TrEMBL record:
The lineage of its organism: Bacteria, Bacillati, Bacillota, Clostridia, Eubacteriales. Pfam families: DUF1858. It comes from the Bacteria. Residues 5-62 form the DUF1858 domain. Transmembrane segments: none annotated. It comes from Ruminiclostridium papyrosolvens DSM 2782. This is DUF1858 domain-containing protein. InterPro entries: DUF1858 (IPR015077), ScdA-like_N_sf (IPR038062).
Amino acid sequence: MSKAIDLSKSVYDICKEYPEMIGILKEMGFENISAPGMLNTAGRIMTIPKGAAMKGIELQKLKEILAAKGFSIKE
């Protein structure tokens, strides 16, 4: 059974539900996600699509990587 990620949820909520997402997002270019306090501040208002746009990361590629890691995407 795959793990469903709701892209409308905040990065904080997604990482609380799936703690392994911190490492996955860091690998995908969200290098500051593991910085102290980042998840508890910006992560509470930031969504993955917004963060991808800010970082210049193609959202479709990000979705493909998440799917390869066993996550399904709910938009």
